[in-house]
Amino acid sequence: MNDTGPDLRRWLAEAEREGEVQPIEGAHWELEIGALSQVNYRRSKPKAMLFDSIKDYSAGSRVLSGSVSNPRLLGSVLGLGWDNTDEDLMETLAVKPGQWAANAAEFRAVTVTDGPLLSHVDDKPDLLKFPVPRWHEGDGGRYIGTGCAVVTRDYDTGRINLGAYRMQVQDEGRSATVNIEAGKHGAQHLRRWFEAEGRAPIAASLGHHPAYLVAAGVEVPGDVSEYDYVGAMTGSPVRTIAGLATGLPLPHDAEIAIEGWVRPADTRPEGPFGEWTGYYSGSKDPILAIDIEKVYYRDDPILLGAPPGKPPHDYSYMRTVMKSAIITDSLRKTGLPGVRGVWAHEAGGGRSLLIVAIEQKYPGHARQAAYLTAQLPNAAYMNRFTVVVDHDVNPRDLGEVVWAMCGRTNPELDIEVMKRTWGSRVDPLTLPGEIAFNSRAVIDACRPFERLADFPAVAESTEDLVASVTRRWPEVLG
């Protein structure tokens, strides 16, 4: 067991030794950090980018992006070592998320009284003392919370939740808005506190080991604290410090953190912001603002950035891999037989386009798989298309998926639409002021069950024949 817990600086040192960190000096917080980050994730082999000597800020005050942008980085963050490929991660993660959730109780977070986070404690907030980027050209401000972990507490049970919600600097650095979608656990916590107390405690870690970003950004079961989930993931209980103003726990070695209170009437206009859908979103409705009581930070702090945008973006690879694994595990736990693979495509931000491959066992099996996948708790948010394919189709290959749809889907019979499902304010199709429902199509791209025996054969060479000719003419086929 690892008795040191997740630590950003130790992980960065390992990543540098592995050649997975690209240092950048002299970039401007105004757009340049965001643009360089975008160029990075669109490379065939993106790296973690560590920005230093940022315009208007002293050396040592840094911003990190791209921390989970390739399989080696993500594998190391998940405690799976540095030598992972996409295939390795999917094979390992087919069972890991379920194991982490099941074992989380054995890795309860431990409260400590001191840690690097307490190196500096400010009572008068000034969030712009940190090099907070304006990430996209159309953003309405500087966003300090993109790779953040926002901490809330269940009023009735005391359970702690971490969520990744966007946070815009407000009031010239004295405050920040926190934009939480209505169905998220954090929003549920705040509403209950408002009912009972008229205000709610809130905190946010703004720089930390990327494991917190992973846990905050995927759907961890509601009865599991993300802190305990991170402990199970990394093999050691997380150490936290109780905030001096609210008592909410923060990672003891976080780089930057804030805590304070939110009240229903204390709001600010927010956005627009370039979101994971690939479009700018920004509601005209005011967003909750945090009355910040304490700001904590280490010497030479590192702000963790994970800006979304048109895919691929900073965390779209992580979300795709993690959600694909979690949905696979959840489907199997329903008892659905024949699940051969799931892929939550990066083109849909890891949410909007889900492909499920099955081996058909009985009439209605394909539709059952589609309906279940489309409404699983950890798949339902902002899902727009769920496609079910036969097991001879690779769900990760969009070309194969579209080929299956073109030859095996009868639109009249095999496309159905679910209405008034779980949407989002960041959906570009949601009009201002509308309730954020969406609809989703389930597409049966499997061979008709009654024609499995006589459906036309696929016109391609067998694997044995391909292997044979490859061995005979290696110089031709590479």
From TrEMBL:
<dbReference type="InterPro" id="IPR002830">
    <property type="entry name" value="UbiD"/>
</dbReference>
<feature type="domain" description="3-octaprenyl-4-hydroxybenzoate carboxy-lyase-like C-terminal">
    <location>
        <begin position="317"/>
        <end position="445"/>
    </location>
</feature>
<dbReference type="InterPro" id="IPR049383">
    <property type="entry name" value="UbiD-like_N"/>
</dbReference>
<dbReference type="Pfam" id="PF20695">
    <property type="entry name" value="UbiD_N"/>
</dbReference>
<feature type="domain" description="3-octaprenyl-4-hydroxybenzoate carboxy-lyase-like Rift-related">
    <location>
        <begin position="114"/>
        <end position="311"/>
    </location>
</feature>
<dbReference type="InterPro" id="IPR049381">
    <property type="entry name" value="UbiD-like_C"/>
</dbReference>
<keyword id="KW-0456">Lyase</keyword>
<dbReference type="GO" id="GO:0033494">
    <property type="term" value="P:ferulate metabolic process"/>
</dbReference>
<dbReference type="GO" id="GO:0005737">
    <property type="term" value="C:cytoplasm"/>
</dbReference>
<dbReference type="Pfam" id="PF20696">
    <property type="entry name" value="UbiD_C"/>
</dbReference>
<dbReference type="Pfam" id="PF01977">
    <property type="entry name" value="UbiD"/>
</dbReference>
<protein>
    <submittedName>
        <fullName>UbiD family decarboxylase</fullName>
        <ecNumber>4.1.1.-</ecNumber>
    </submittedName>
</protein>
<feature type="domain" description="3-octaprenyl-4-hydroxybenzoate carboxy-lyase-like N-terminal">
    <location>
        <begin position="14"/>
        <end position="92"/>
    </location>
</feature>
<dbReference type="GO" id="GO:0016831">
    <property type="term" value="F:carboxy-lyase activity"/>
</dbReference>
<dbReference type="GO" id="GO:0046281">
    <property type="term" value="P:cinnamic acid catabolic process"/>
</dbReference>
<dbReference type="InterPro" id="IPR048304">
    <property type="entry name" value="UbiD_Rift_dom"/>
</dbReference>
